[in-house]
Amino acid sequence: MGGWGAKDIPGQRGRVAVVTGANSGLGLVTARELARHGARVVLACRGEARGRAAVERIAAEVPGAEVEFGRLDLGDLASVREFADSFSYDRLDLLVNNAGVMALPYGTTADGFETQIGVNHLGHFALTGLLFPTIATTPGARIVTVSSMLHVLADLDPDDLGGEKGTYRRWIAYGRSKSANLLFTHELARRLSVTGSDVVAAAAHPGYASTNLQTAGPRLEGRRGAERLMEIGNRVLGQSAEAGALPTLYAATAPGVRPDTFVGPSFAMWRGSPSTSWRAGRTRDDTRAERLWAASERLTGVVHEGLMG
After folding, report:
1. Do residues 179 and 155 make contact, with C-beta atoms less than 8 angstroms apart?
2. Which amino acids are annotated catalytic?
């Protein structure tokens, strides 16, 4: 994978992609580069104004880009169902589960889930299941879920996804949700293999990418000092969103990506060109992954048709 960059993305003409959280940061770059290489891209975003502004920005930067806005609030399962019901294409070559929140103060989604597990995992679990009938009939389709190197912060108890049994700690809750992303990918890949599907489920992480994800939590609480510290960290330590999106783009488009691969920056999981990334062994635990899947089905009410394990 050494030295792989956006210029190496294979042609995407005729392919359809959905990128969640594509109004800014990694999602915007991912959507733009897929469109630049010929894909028709649906920018699945919560806010209509920002989503449509992102569509206009990509259209201005990439003449002839085929991009459109789709409203999707991953913190509201009714919105997830509405998005899936409104998806009008007869193929879906690429689903990029990119959107996420980080280290927020305690809160709950519209359905009563702890916000980070609800948005980062359960919303994407439901979206994948609802779109899967279309994905399954698209030759060579891929599902890429964006996790984080910070999945190392927390183990995951499938029977206590929201961490209600203990004191809420924002970074632990974030790590738990990112561990869920990897366990979901592992179990999805296993189920796809059992059915003989050629759909590839993989995961990626950006290392430390300078985006608004780091500052959103402190800003929400008015903690200006913490927000300022994150801003400094972004400038000094972070790589650009363009660089941070490369692992996702690699997992989504590069030839030969294997199921359950975890792609990240090559230098200490921090920055650099895409490479196979280390991950905690517990994120490949079959029993834990199956229990997470069952709990996610129960909580969301979404069954992945054709992937009964």
Report:
1. yes
2. 174
Residue 242: DSSP 8-state: H
Task: Name 303's Cβ contacts closer than 8 Å, sequence gap at least 6.
Answer: 129, 297
- CA 295/CA 300 separation, integer angstroms: 9
Residue 230: the pLDDT is 47
For 197-221, write each residue's pLDDT tens digit. 999 999 999 987 665 554 444 445 5
- Who's near 132: CB < 8 A, 6+ residues apart? 304, 305, 306, 307
How far are the Cα atoms of 2, 16, 65, 95 from residue 31, in angstroms, in the given order?
A: 23, 11, 10, 11
Determine how β-strand 66-71 pairs with β-strand 94-97. Answer: unpaired
Structure tokens of 303? 């069954």
Q: Where are the beta strands (DSSP E) in the chain?
A: 16-20, 40-45, 66-71, 94-97, 142-146, 200-204, 262-267, 271-276
pLDDT tens for 250-302 read 999 999 999 999 999 975 555 678 999 999 999 999 999 999 999 999 999 99
Instruction: Please tell me the pTM assigned to this model.
Output: 0.91
17 alpha-carbon distance from chain centroid: 13
